[in-house]
Specification:
This protein is mostly beta strands and 278 residues long. The protein has three domains: 164 residues, Sandwich (Jelly Rolls); 40 residues, Laminin (Ribbon); 41 residues, no CATH class. It is 7% helix and 41% strand. Strands 1, 3, 8, 9, 10, 12, 13 and 15 form an eight-stranded antiparallel β-sheet that branches. The termini are far apart. The relative contact order is 0.17. Keywords: Disulfide bond, EGF-like domain. This is Neurexin-4-like. InterPro entries: ConA-like_dom_sf (IPR013320), EGF (IPR000742), Laminin_G (IPR001791), Neurexin-related_CASP (IPR050372).
């Protein structure tokens, strides 16, 4: 028989242990979770962590039992809150300048009380005081399920009104759809690691593809492979009208490792003489 002190210790270990972290992946804009909260309350709280590469997507939508709703979403990588309450015009809160679609985990806490809204992202709180009178409904839409662009990416530790349930415990009617939601895994592909863009191009991505921003690299093409500079003075003259001389950059090895360098091309009839600048 276990000693009473041992049993008490085991009780406190079970009581205060951290809940297991079980991520869930919403693989399409049409996937979502439909979780219950406390209905008829004058306050609400939603907490979760997310990661994504998408510019846009719904994070949380809650329709009040009274008139109105609150919507937390990503737009061009920025986190925004839209809130509508009875007798008040729609308000849009957009106080975070950061982009949160960088593929890293970000933690969000959204709290509403009468005349008070607090949005905390990664430990930084945005607080607004305005006329807010509402009564909570019973359902919270997570990642989609309403009009607009759904969220594609991963979430974890989704907690509604202080209640956390493992995604693996969600019932069939609490999420959609079975072939679009992956439990106990964050299935995201980092297409920018390693960087496929050559010559210092900037890689950008979403859940479907990557693109390369070749601005200021001196190269173009899908992966910044094609040089924008001619291979030689003769190549430059073949496609441009020239006078007696031209100051240009040439790229002698095309897309090779050598960087373009400045030269002065002097043209004499059908011949030319490149002068390399010091």
């Amino acid at each position: 028989m276990l000693d009473s002190r041992v049993m008490k210790l085991m009780y406190y270990v079970l009581l205060f242990q951290e809940p297991p972290i079980v991520p869930v992946t919403f693989t399409t804009p049409g996937s979502y979770a439909r979780l219950k909260g406390y209905e008829g309350m004058k306050q609400m709280n939603v907490t979760f962590s997310f990661r994504t590469y998408e510019n846009n997507g719904l994070l949380v939508f809650h329709k009040f039992l009274s008139e109105g709703h609150v919507k937390l979403y990503l737009e061009e990588g920025k986190i925004k809150v839209e809130i509508v309450t009875s007798g008040n015009p729609k308000a849009l809160l957009n106080n975070f300048d950061d982009s949160f679609n960088d593929g890293k985990w970000h933690t969000v806490i959204l709290t509403l009380n009468t005349n008070l809204l607090i949005l905390n992202v990664d430990g930084r709180a945005m607080k607004t005081t305005r006329l807010l009178t509402f009564t909570t409904g019973g359902i919270y839409m997570i990642a989609g399920g309403v009009t607009g662009t759904g969220f594609v990416g991963c979430m974890r530790m989704i907690t509604v009104d202080g209640n956390y349930r493992l995604p693996t415990d969600w019932k069939d009617n609490e999420y959609c759809c079975k072939d679009q939601v992956v439990f106990d895994a964050c299935q995201m592909i980092d297409r920018c690691n390693p960087n496929p863009c050559e010559h210092g191009g900037t890689c950008k991505q979403n859940s479907a593809e990557f693109t390369c921003d070749c601005t200021a690299s001196g190269y173009s093409g899908a992966v910044c492979h094609t040089s924008l500079n001619p291979l030689s003075c003769e190549a430059y003259r073949n496609v441009n009208s020239v006078g007696t001389h031209s100051n240009i950059h040439i790229d002698v090895d095309g897309s090779g490792p050598l960087k373009p360098f400045p030269v002065t091309c002097e043209f004499y009839g059908k011949t030319f003489s490149p002068l390399v600048e010091a």
